[in-house]
Amino acid sequence: MVNIGKQRKPVVLGQVTIAPASTAGNAPPTSSMSRNNSLIRQAFYHFSNLLTMKILSTLFLASLLVTGTAAAQAQTLPVLGTFPVGATTVTVSALSTGLVVPWELVWGPDNFIWMTERGGRISRVNPSTGAVTPLITLADVATSSEGGLLGMVLHPEFSTSPYVYVVYNYNDNGYKEKLVRLTYANGTLGSPLVLLGNIPAVSTHSGSRLLILPDGTLLMTTGDAQDRPAAQDRASLNGKILRLNLDGTIPPDNPVAGNPSYTFGHRNPQGLVLASNGRLYSSEHGQDAEDEVNIIEPNRNYGWPTVEGLCDLASEQAYCSANNVREPIFAWAPTVGVAALTYYDHPAIPGWRNSLLAATLRGNKLTQIPLNAAGTAASEGVFTLTSFGRLRAICVSPQGRVYVSTSNRDGRGGPATTDDRILVLENLAYVPTPTVTARQEVLGLWPNPARSSVTLRLPSPATASLPTELRDALGRLVLASRFVAGQSSLEVSVAGLRPGIYSAQVLTPAGSFTQRLVVE
């Protein structure tokens, strides 16, 4: 774990009633880690993002591109500067300008950027031209200080389930927060369906980052809404990471039956990303001592309001030991207002591989947080992009470009005439190789790591018989099977294999495509 320069000091859920639970009786951190890690480490983010691109390009992409936004055309963007990342020169360009607090950037299955702006507008952004196509402006969004339209995520099977999930603040006998599902059709968003409402809110500390896991459940971060005890109260929705089914119901395997809370003890978590190493990371605003990057594990306590940052004070250490507290792997001190978080492991910028990238508001910078090979520890952060003011949202394209939004019109920044902007960070000298692109788009593995079996997934049904192989670290063939025509998933038993690293390979007319598999 890393700490930089420490300076210390009735809820309605559809038709379901939330079951309160006591924090007593939680297993100590050391005994709960292996049990809790298994669910998260099996998550594989390509399933919900990159693996859908092939099938969408034939069915759904065409319908998107005829709805008023022309297909992306290559053009030269205004270059704002460069900076080095190791031996790589990263160029910063302006993609879109004149925005108003873009809070969320999501790389969509149509290869466009989907964006929320805090005032209530949702748009698609052409990643080549920067053209912004509005899809809807939500009339009941209530903006107040930090509140408004916030997080967004798209359904992983968007071609057949064209749903967009958003979180925003609204007024209804007080200031509140809700999770809403919208439906995309004919170039617009509509048909709002409230999945979770009546969440207590104030003008700050709303959390609101969304993520869909490969198991088809949705995670939603919530802040404490300035009610500190709520973070430790399992009957409250505040100060939590919630886990729901995509219809708003509670999964039966949540840590507490009938309760949507997945983790608790949060102040204001505003970043959430599932990395290709299978770990789930979150970034969180501290009060004034430390901001955090956490590894999220189910049923863990993240300490707030008793603990801020690392468990390094005597009073904190005693509390952490007694209350199943998961320490952050990285902390900023003093606080930097950490917002969105993403994981980067693309060869386009080699110096950023296996790193978290965090946008910061008060810090006015992008922070690279290098991880160890296991993804369990972080090195000291490297600061870049320091000349553009407050930074809030971030996403990465399949080509390795990084898109970052400024937040200088949120009432706390000094906006330039072109703010707010979406900036593009890219290595202009990078030439993608077919091997990298094919591996990311063609073959998916779930779960990974695997214990008893693994499912190989194709983005669309095989059109012919496709041989598959599993080889050990020495290249020896240990298992062989095949996809039959019309099949898009293939389950293979690995129960008889020794723990270790293997390669799964599918042989197609276009070539062979490989993914790494870890067997536990």
Secondary-structure-based class equals mainly beta
Q: What fraction of the residues are assigned to beta strands by DSSP?
A: 35-45%
Number of helices: 4
Low-pLDDT runs = 4-74, 435-441
Protein name: T9SS type A sorting domain-containing protein
Transmembrane segments: 43-66
Pfam family, one: Por_Secre_tail
Keywords: Membrane, Transmembrane, Transmembrane helix
Descriptive account of the structure:
- This protein has 520 residues and is mainly beta.
- Among the domains are: 32-62 and 96-309 and 321-345, TolB, C-terminal domain (Neuraminidase), CATH 2.120.10.30; 442-519, Immunoglobulin-like.
- It has 4 helices and 33 strands.
- The protein has helices spanning 29-41, 53-65, 314-322, 434-442; strands at 2-4, 79-85, 88-96, 102-107, 113-117, 121-125, 132-137, 149-154, 163-171, 175-185, 188-200, 210-212, 217-221, 240-245, 261-264, 269-274, 280-284, 291-295, 330-332, 338-344, 355-360, 366-370, 382-384, 391-396, 402-406, 422-426, 444-446, 453-457, 466-471, 477-483, 489-493, 500-508, 511-519.
- The strands form 8 sheets. A 5-stranded mixed β-sheet has the order 1-19-18-17-16, with no helix packed on it. It has a 5-stranded antiparallel β-sheet with strand order 2-3-26-25-24, with no helix packed on it.
- A hairpin with a 5-residue loop joins strand 4 and strand 5 (113-117).
- It is globular, with a radius of gyration of 22 Å.
- The two termini are 25 Å apart.
- 49% of the residues are buried.
Summarize the structure.
This protein is mainly beta. The protein is built from 4 helices and 33 strands.
